[in-house]
């Protein structure tokens, strides 16, 4: 394994012991490790036969693993706005890429900051709507984060733009950006090891999102396309291309796994491992040939399911054992859950669920039984004109996926009996009662959320977003 900077803990006698930093401030640090387009299946601990992720496997072994976690609107900016606000896309309004999150929103940055946290953000933002390579100006547009080494959006990982705190000068990460972003995160963590204030840091990586073949050569050499095992739902005519692309995708993942190891080592070396809640997740998945498609937005598991690990140190005194959980936690639930774990009141505008009680053993009111999945307006890589995109609302339960489009019932899968979602049961007579039950449950959820499920262009007009002929918000660099 390639580790860019590994210092063995036993050799660090001049550093604080692993328990020291926990005594400096009463609340835990929070570290969010956010990746882009990493589907839930693609880790060693999830059983992927193609990739080894020893550092994430070790993290998973000491974490709560939400195996059914979903990205409720599986595309970049909508997820990120839900992460920051704890709200659903039709509430915060970011149901498209390349639009701006309201600067008056009540965000995770502001709420943790008001509770006395130092707030840091490193990496991809994609919530500003002022051009993908432009600076996100300090102040309200940074939504409560005071430390900043961020970029709006780029997928040129070897010539990656960022802006450093108050400096408006465009900078470029040295080499592969995941390495530089990790270096910045390690400096941030190390610099705060003796601080009386806790920190909340989001490290937002751009990979393993396409382009798939741009990881450092040492990682790309690990994966032979001819040896890649494909999912059963990849059609034969795509096999050669998908094997090639998966080899590059896994190279990005292997590099990120090494970066996870560096982060965990630094938390231990600086005495903050026992006083830091670590969340590892992704904004959405990637179909990568499954169902004959690529990328995201669609309601299939490869698109909507994401890894989600909460490492909650036992030293915090919370009665939350590590292990697998089956609750279908959604994007808007992340903010209130992190606040709950830190004993910070959840503000009124938040719509997500605080899962702390569930994690402590409560099992009432059907918490985690299902999550709503949504496409308000198909755009970009799944636009209606070129890719057959469609609006939908659906439920992902612990067993089933049910989806309705504007014309009525569309998809029904039994994910227990059909894990690759290859048999659509929506018109199967034996499953009529189940379909009606799920449709009724979905309608109840939509009614409760005030979602009228109208055509996407209705919402585009309501929010005043400019779109092109494909229904996509154009963006500039």
For the structure shown, list the relevant keywords.
four-stranded antiparallel sheet, 477 residues, disordered N terminus, ten-stranded mixed sheet
Describe this structure in words.
The structure is a single chain. The radius of gyration is 21 Å and the shape is globular. The protein has a 10-stranded mixed sheet with strand order 6-5-4-3-7-1-8-9-2-10, sandwiched between helices. It has a 4-stranded antiparallel sheet with strand order 11-12-13-14, covered by helices on one side. The protein contains 13 helices and 14 strands. The chain has helices spanning 54-61, 76-85, 89-92, 108-114, 177-191, 217-220, 239-269, 301-304, 334-341, 356-359, 384-387, 432-449, 456-463; strands at 29-36, 64-66, 118-124, 147-151, 161-164, 171-172, 199-208, 276-282, 308-311, 323-325, 370-375, 392-397, 400-405, 408-414. By secondary structure, the protein is α/β, with parallel strands linked by helices.
Largest sheet strand order: 6-5-4-3-7-1-8-9-2-10
Question: Which percent bin holds the helix content?
Answer: 25-40%
Note the main sheet: 10 strands, mixed
Q: What's the end-to-end separation, in Å?
A: 36 Å
Cα-based radius of gyration, to the nearest Å: 21 Å
- N-to-C series of helices and strands: EHEHHHEEEEHEHHEHEEHHEHEEEHH
Question: By helix and strand content, what is the structural category?
Answer: alpha/beta
Number of H- or I-type helical stretches? 13
Shape: globular
Unreliable residue runs? 1-22
How many strand segments? 14
Strand proportion, as a percent range, falls in: 15-25%
The residue-averaged pLDDT reads 94
